[in-house]
Amino acid sequence: MTLLQRSSRRYLTQHPWLMGLSVLGVAIGVAVVVSIDLANTSASRAFELSAETVTGAATHQVVGTGETLDDNVYRRLREAGVRPSAPIVEGYATLQRGDRTFQVIGIDPLADAAFRPYLGTGTSGDLDLGAFMTQDVALMSAPTARELSLSSGDTLQVDVEGSTYSVSLLGLIEPRNERTRRSVANLLVVDVSMAQRLFDQSGRLSRIDLLAPSDEGTQTAYLDRVRQALPEGVQLRRSDTRTETVAQMTKAFDLNLTALSLLALIVGAFLIYNTMTFSIVQRRGLLGRLRALGVTRAQVFRLVLGEAAVLGVVGSGLGLLLGIVLASGLVQLLAQTINDLYFVVEVSELSISTWTLAKGGLLGLGTTLLAALPPAREATNAPVSTVLRRSTQETTLQRRAPWWAGLGLLVAGAGILLLLVTQQSIWAGYGALFCLLVGAALVTPLAVMVLANGVWPLLGRLTGVIGRMAARGIVANLSRTGVAIAALTVAIAATVGVGIMIDSFRGTVSDWLRQSLQADVYVQPPSLVFRRSTATLDSTVAARLRGVEGIAASYSVRRVTVQADVGRTELVAVEPGTNTEEIYQFKSGNPETAWDAVRSSPSVLVSEPYSYRYDVGVGDTLRLQTDRGQRPFAVKGVYFDYGSDLGVVLMSRSTYEQYYDDQGVSGLAFTADDTTSVDALIADMRASVAGLQDVLIRSNKALRETSMQVFDRTFTITTVLRLLAIAVAFIGVLTALMALALERRREMGVLRASGMTPPQVGGYLTLQSSLMGAIAGLLSLPLGYVLAYVLVFVINKRSFGWTLQLTVPTGVLLQALVLAVVAALLAGLYPTWRMARSSPAVALQDG
Amino acid sequence: MPASSPLVELNALTKTYREGDQDRTVLRDVSLHLDRGAFSVLMGRSGAGKSTLLNLISGIDLPTSGRIRIGGTDLTEKSETERTKFRRTNIGFVFQSFNLISTLTVAENVRLPLELAGNTPRADHDRAQAMLDRVGLADRADAFPDRLSGGEQQRVAVARALTHDPLLVLADEPTGNLDYETGQAVLTLLGDLVRDTDTTLLVATHDPEVLPRADRVLHLHGGTLHEEVPEYVGASR
Fold it and tell me: Which of A503, A33, A500 lies closest to A259, judged by CA?
């Protein structure tokens, strides 16, 4: 180790608190990024594994227009000599024991072995094929059975869309390797006919798996033969299309989580910048002496970057460990959110990928080094001669503050330009956000000067000389206070921005629910995906409910997934009633003529996110795959809808039935007549369907509350991320102010020597810290608002296509101010405590 | 460089600083030759430009016009990095406020110029130890500077300034922070060491007690340099 490195090491170890807190800041930043990445990866991996499990070796799949296709298609394919081919019925079920969701796959054991050999089916296995094909039995992974204390012969209670079935465990699948173990962990294998009963899909299949020859020429001929054998409306697709579609569904969601996780790291970067700048400012003299002795600028630069690298490596290492711990908690939250919003996924374990860890480590180290670059450059400019006093530097900085502010405005302007020149890029949106944060940080020193100079006469009147000193001290030490306040402002503004965004979102959704839920009672089968309930209400249940006395009107909703020319599309068929026009608020199109068209012709409405996602608007034609083949539908209006970020297409029930052979109902809404109370109606309805399908019968209010609960649940991760960013911000201000106060020991010594009592010195320090906190808090409010504006009107719009109403909750603003001042107050406590116990003589000597 | 050439050659140096809208000339057309082994004193009031001149001679700063040659090397033609490297090998510094590196021990402070010059660690160690012996602080080698008295710190600074056998030692008010007796002791030590090693020494000071030890006395006044030949030159050497 060279003497320069030794000098560095001693400096770092002489400031354990400062360095420790900086390391913690980087660690939390890295931990958040890594944990979100791990949670995202684990959820995608779980989905991929489950998709791979059910896809098996299949290269192509035959699918219907909607979720299912007629099982006669399978027969036609077999007759046409398309082999190997295997029919599949799949869905999700909840096992009552362990309340665990399983993917259920219904197979034909005689045709399936070529596709999924690891399931142990086929004639050569030891599976009792007769029992499997004729009885209510299932196969399950052996490790999962052990986990749930189940063994062959046990009876399982399985819930599917509100109905309960008893299934015996016929055998256990022994996975041959780790990959298979994970793939089959949440799988229940049943016979195809059993699956048809479970999912009420008599005579229907989810898809047919095919194994095309690998040779290109033969494959083309084979696929042509398959296509010729298919009836109209049935499609042939590559088997990996499904995983791609699902990945597309959550792309924006994943991206936003990643970007928000980076927020904590950015705040952490400010912390590192702050610490390194402080360490440089504090060592200007020492660096000047080294330069006088012949240490080159490059050596000084490397020295500072080396110190940052040490902090970065230690912080990132710690962050990786913390990240894994945090991820194990976040992954379940994330899985819950994905289940609420997109599709069913059961994540039973964390996939720790080396790539994620390497990325997190590199990101932590890279961010630290990047944050240390400006201070390192600053260090190379340390005046070589020791005659230059610090007051000269402070004066220079004060003189330069307007220039910095000008540069800040330029950077912020570049951010705004980035927003204007890009239309859809989410990353450009976050890039602009970053520019605004950096721009604001550059404007901060000037704002601090203006505010502190403005407040000192008032403070002077209130608290005398101590108040005046506290305010003037902030301007006099601008090289230190400016950075600390900028870091705190950015950190708090980021949390304010996210806070306002969540609140605005919540307010908009709440208003929308109030507007769109106008019936008194809502009925739907329980669904594993809250926002995309495609489960079917039992026809007997629907008929009985409609027959209950006291109903003034009833409306049905059918929700299915179909293929459109633009992609997989969620289709909603409704029965337009008298107040339908009030329920659906139009963004574009004329509601009156649009509804007339929807009622009487092949016309549809599309939701705002659908319109944005697929660039479809009024006047366009959407081609939907129907049971009559692909048909054109005129788009007559775009309406506001916050139910699904994937978007929906809405048509009237009569049009739906004209094009789809489906009498099913996904949900029913009822209004009570004038003489019946809603509670009584609900009680009667529950009584009328007792013993049948277990359906959710909820009042308007209950459904609204449940929806808001789900909304809050889906924002839990965002809230957790925001809290973690606040934690890093808190550490940031603590570090900055503590360092500042400790560094001024000599000044405090002078004050003590001049006759100030320890409580007076403490009061002075605390007042100054609080004032800095308050300035940061105040500055963070407008910046937070601007960030919220970008998050709501740019990021959210580009990610999901929603129009949200920006509301500014006073709670979030107050929280910001309190956070800033409390952090500042706490930061003042330790130096005050130390000051009270130290002799002024020592302080003077040390300086 | 011929043996008879002066070690330090300053030709028509001018240094002007920009202060707000105005220029302030600190040094005006300063020329000076210092021979190898000479002990020179630079006198002048505070703000006369003594430190500026030392900064120029050491290559820390560049003149607005004029030439600086040290040991035949023209510093005004060198880049910042080249000047820094020249300084680390050829110049030693003693400051008023000692300016030891607080994060290095006494021995490490003395070894620092050697290490920067690229010497081997073993040779560094022996040389530093020998220098500390010369200044009487061998027993404090492992102490940190803040444990030493002012006089001791300045003795370490003297050892550090000479440890790498520089051509020239520049001392800026070396006794300014010391009491009379300690200051005299440090001056004696410095004088002895430069004489023994035939090193050129330029001391900027306004302490008249230094004058009897000097070969040459230079005065900076109003930005120009004047030399006086004192009657006691050489009397105490």
Answer: A33
Q: Clarify whether residues A738 and A830 are in a common domain.
A: yes
Cα-based distances in Å from A821 to A291, A461, A737, A816: 40, 21, 12, 9
Task: Give the pLDDT confidence of A107-166 residue by residue, as tens digits.
Answer: 998 888 888 877 776 555 677 888 888 889 999 988 889 988 898 889 999 888 778 889
Query: Are A727 and A831 found together in one domain?
Result: yes
Model confidence at A838: pLDDT above 70: no
- Which residue, among B55, B62, B102, would best test binding to A if mutated, counting the most A CBs under 10 Å from its CB? B102
Helix or strand holding residue B129 (H, E): helix B121-134
Among candidate residues A635, A660, A694, the one where a domain is terminated: A694
Inspect the interface and report whether the beta carbons of B89 and A294 lie closer than 8 Å: yes
3-state secondary structure of A416: helix
Question: Partners of B41 in the beta sheet?
Answer: B203, B217
Q: Give residue A530's pLDDT band: very low, low, confident or very high (50, 70, 90).
A: low
Please tell me whether residues A16 and A125 are part of one structural domain.
Answer: no
d(CA B11, CA B30): 7
Nearest-CA distance from B141 to chain A in Å? 15
Residue A279 carries which side chain, given as an amino acid letter?
A: S
pLDDT of residue B9: 94
- Out of A360, A388, A416, a domain closes at A388
Reading phi first (left if > 0) and then psi (alpha if -120 to 50, else beta), residue B99 is in: left
**Same domain assignment for residues A50 and A85:** no
Any domain includes A170? yes
CB contact under 8 A, A6 and B80: no
Domain membership flag for residue A406: no
**A114, A13: one domain:** no
What range defines the domain where residue A260 resides?
1-58+243-388
Chain B, nearest residue to A289 by Cα: B99
Query: Considering its fold, how many domains does chain A have in total?
Result: 4
The Cα–Cα gap between A450 and A522 comes to 58
Same domain as A688, residue A564? yes
Quick one: A671 and A535 in the same domain?
yes
Q: Mutation test of the interface with chain B: which of A279, A295, A296, choosing the one with the most B Cβ atoms within 10 A?
A: A296
Q: Which residue from B80, B84, B99 is facing A289, i.e. has the nearest CB?
A: B99
Q: Is residue A427 a part of any domain in this protein?
A: no
**Chain B residues with CB within 8 Å of chain A CB:** 51, 55, 58, 60-61, 80-81, 84-85, 87-89, 91, 93, 95, 97, 99-104, 108, 111-113, 115-117, 146, 160
Residue A377 has pLDDT above 70, yes or no: yes
Q: Do A291 and B84 touch (CB under 8 A)?
A: yes
* Weakest-pLDDT range from A30-44, A274-288, A442-456, A817-831: A274-288
Nearest residue in A to B86, CA atom: A294
pLDDT digits (tens, 9 = 90+) for B121-138: 777 888 899 999 988 899
Contacts of A842 in chain B (CB under 8 A): none
- The nearest alpha carbon in chain B to A292 belongs to B60
Q: What is the pLDDT of residue B236?
A: 43
User: Which residue, among B28, B72, B44, has the nearest Cα to B202 in the 3D structure?
Assistant: B44
Among A3, A291, A385, the residue with its CB nearest the CB of B115 is: A3
pLDDT band at B219 (very low <50, low <70, confident <90, very high): very high
Distance from B152 to chain A by nearest Cα, in Å?
A: 16
3-state secondary structure of B2: coil
Residue A410 phi, psi (nearest 5): -65, -45
What are the structure tokens assigned to A309, written together? 């690298």
* CA-to-CA separations, B190 to A343, B37, B90, B159, B197, in angstroms, rounded: 83, 13, 17, 9, 11
pLDDT (tens digit per residue) in A336-363: 777 666 666 666 677 788 888 998 899 8
Say yes or no for a CB contact (<8 Å) between B102 and A384: no
Topology of domain B37-50+87-228 in CATH is: Rossmann fold (3.40.50)
Q: Say yes or no: A191 and A267 in one domain.
A: no
Please indicate, yes or no, if residue A639 is contained in any of the structural domains.
yes
- pLDDT over 50 (residue A386): no
